[in-house]
Amino acid sequence: MALYGSISSPNLNWQIGPKTISKSTSSSMNSYTTISLSFSSSVSMGLNLRFNLASPSTRAAKINRLRNHGSPLKVVCIDYPRPELDDTVNFIEASYLSSTFRASPRPTKPLKVVIAGAGLAGLSTAKYLADAGHKPILLEARDVLGGKVAAWKDEDGDWYETGLHIFFGAYPNVQNLFGELGINDRLQWKEHSMIFAMPSKPGEFSRFDFPEVLPSPLNGIWAILRNNEMLTWPEKIKFAIGLLPAMLGGQAYVEAQDGVSVKEWMRKQGIPERVTDEVFIAMSKALNFINPDELSMQCILIALNRFLQEKHGSKMAFLDGNPPERLCMPIVDHIQSLGGEVHLNSRIKNIELNDDNTVKSFLLTNGKVIEGDAYVSAAPVDILKLLLPENWKGVPYFQRLDKLVGVPVINVHICCGICLQFY
Asked: What is its EC number (predicted)?
């Protein structure tokens, strides 16, 4: 897939620090000079700009004309190809499980299922219930779809998102969902690299490059061994030895680390403190927005195991636009095409109960009462805590909610456009 954007030629300047500048002149009757720019990866990823100026004698006139009139130049960015995910074990399993919803016998009496929350959890729940022949009714309190991937458009037409959303190759259910909706082409895959900012060297970055020719886990091992900026050789050895229990112990070992923080686990394995500071603070923040001394090591090991077991597991893709339109709306269209409903601005005020403490209905703040045969909460845990009926608070199952604490997150959008000008 190719993406096209426009830049204004008056703002184009090849003196911003290009990696290379080359010229070539044709010997034909209509001779011209081509100036090609290839920027280093810190400026752009594989971006090449090429300008054809008819002849040296007209060069100044053309530059002046471009400067005065601002004729737009088209920039073409080509995505990296989609990795071969469809033949991996996890993807095949995810694909089979979702196909059972479509292939199952149609219910003689479809259930009306009321779902609170139109984030990706609520949307996918409604999608698969509709696939199975039931009628989902999806309620969203706000005026926008997406939950944690929601976005808003300002008066200038720019979109503000709730953070950076990455779609890893190790997400078989999400990747399968894109395929079922026919929107695989909306994922823009990047090179197979993980790039970390270096706290000790502000403004500098360190890369872990995964070679395409090697299978997992060799590609990940190679990426770690080749990185000499963040990890010294003694640190690499200690880190590798520390990971051995996780690699050999399997899922049982991973689950046993639930009560151990990332920082505690690192110390126990003798992994240097600097590795935690340089690598795992960033990973902990990315996974759960908290520090390594607060995050369960189980979360880290689950991610690392998937990355090490799957060749393309750590490969990243980004959505080609805002999530509400490019991802959420196709799910809504699918739900509605099968008879389901999606309602925005439908905030729940109370969960009304029957005499036996089962759910009777959802009472909305606008006074509407929504009844169904079954009810699902796909809302954040803090919202569910606020809505929890008094009669449920003594139930051991719901008492477990007390241990779950939401993490407040503030997103700051910083525009870092490169100003390009002709001289």
From this structure: 1.3.5.5
Would residue 71 count as lying in a domain? yes
Residues 6 or more apart whose CB falls under 8 angstroms from that of 262 comprise: 276, 280, 284, 292, 293, 295, 296, 297, 300
Range of the domain at 117: 89-165+325-403
Query: Same domain for 197 and 291?
Result: yes
DSSP state of 219: H
In a domain? residue 173: no
pLDDT above 70 coverage of the chain, percent: 79
Number of domains in the chain: 3
DSSP per-residue string spanning 45-109? SS-EEEEEES-HHHHHHHHHHHHHH--EEEEEEEPBPPP--TTSHHHHHHHHHHHHHHHSPPPSS
Which 8-state DSSP code applies to residue 202?
T
Tokens of 183: 């929107």
Global pTM reads: 0.78
- Contact 36/48 with Cβ under 8 angstroms? yes
In whole angstroms, how far apart are CA 364 and each of 58, 141, 232, 344, 372? Answer: 69, 9, 58, 12, 14
* Residue 333: pLDDT band with limits 50, 70, 90: very high
Are 224 and 304 in a shared domain? Answer: yes
Average pLDDT (146-161) is: 89
Please tell me the predicted confidence (pLDDT) of residue 39. 37
